[in-house]
Specification:
272 residues; mainly alpha; Leucine-rich Repeat Variant; 76% helix; 0% strand; elongated
Length: 272
């Protein structure tokens, strides 16, 4: 099995993560023996991954990534079904928009690729005395790329793309006010419940922040979707934010509130 340079770049991360099958791994090793350029890229990427592995990263709660994937797959399935219902003719008018999105994503991927190569080059030069400064610059570049992806996708017509957008927010360490405002706005106003849930999952990652909890407390009375109500109530109860007690009591007294939501609300009051 022979592989060319383009094929090597596609599987490079999986190769370093030892996620390839035996045959493919052997093919990659064989190519690297004879290709100095690919070998250099692999070493630079290895240095980058090692450096990132040494950095303390905030980990999302258990099941968070699984929930994102479930919502994302749900939206992708619905969009595929819609395409089948509309048929090929109606879909023709959307090709330009699809191509534009694909082109933008390809451009972003190139930025990440060449940014990674640049960062790797810096990290290989560990003999310099400014390694901490280089790592700081690297983290800043990655944060800015993720923010760019978030802001570009959050207004996309596709719900699955908007879910991806708020997923990028979850990966941003110390998000600034603009990022948090986008998440709160999405939670309160997006027309798709899965997107709103995804925004809430991301906000939950930063719920230790007083600013975020302020927004969650303000958001609770605006929510009418039972699943979002329950998650918000439980999150605020976990953080013991008693400012939500008034709204929670109103939810309990509302005759239109579902029994499951009332039950969660009553339990939360006992833990505040």
């Amino acid at each position: 099995m022979n592989m060319d340079c383009k094929e090597i770049q596609v599987v490079m991360i999986d190769y370093l993560d030892r996620a390839l099958g035996a045959e493919t791994s052997a093919a990659v090793r064989g190519h690297l023996i004879g290709c100095e350029e690919c070998r250099k890229e692999v070493e630079e990427l290895r240095e980058l991954m090692l450096a990132m592995g040494d950095q303390e990263m905030r980990q999302p709660g258990a099941g968070l990534r699984e929930n994102f994937q479930v919502m994302l797959q749900s939206e992708l399935n619905m969009e595929t079904a819609d395409d089948l219902v509309r048929g090929p003719r109606e879909g023709m008018g959307e090709k330009a928009g699809v191509k534009a999105r694909i082109g933008w994503m390809a451009a972003a991927a190139c930025i990440l690729l060449f940014g990674g190569m640049w960062i790797g080059t810096l990290l290989v030069s560990r003999k310099t005395s400014d390694v901490p400064g280089q790592l700081g610059a690297m983290q800043k570049e990655i944060k800015e790329m993720k923010e760019a992806m978030l802001f570009s996708l959050i207004d996309n017509e596709s719900a699955s793309q908007r879910i991806k957008a708020v997923g990028y927010a979850e990966e941003i360490l110390n998000p600034d006010q603009k990022v948090l405002q986008v998440l709160v706005s999405t939670l309160n106003h997006d027309k798709n419940v899965n997107v709103r849930l995804a925004a809430l999952y991301s906000l939950a990652t930063f719920a230790d922040s007083r600013q975020v909890r302020d927004s969650l407390v303000t958001s609770l009375p605006k929510q009418t979707e039972p699943l979002i109500q329950v998650m918000l109530i439980n999150l605020l109860a976990e953080k013991k934010d008693s400012r939500a007690n008034g709204t929670i009591r109103e939810i309990i007294s509302n005759k239109n509130t579902l029994p499951a939501v009332k039950d969660a609300a009553q339990k939360s009051l006992k833990t505040m």
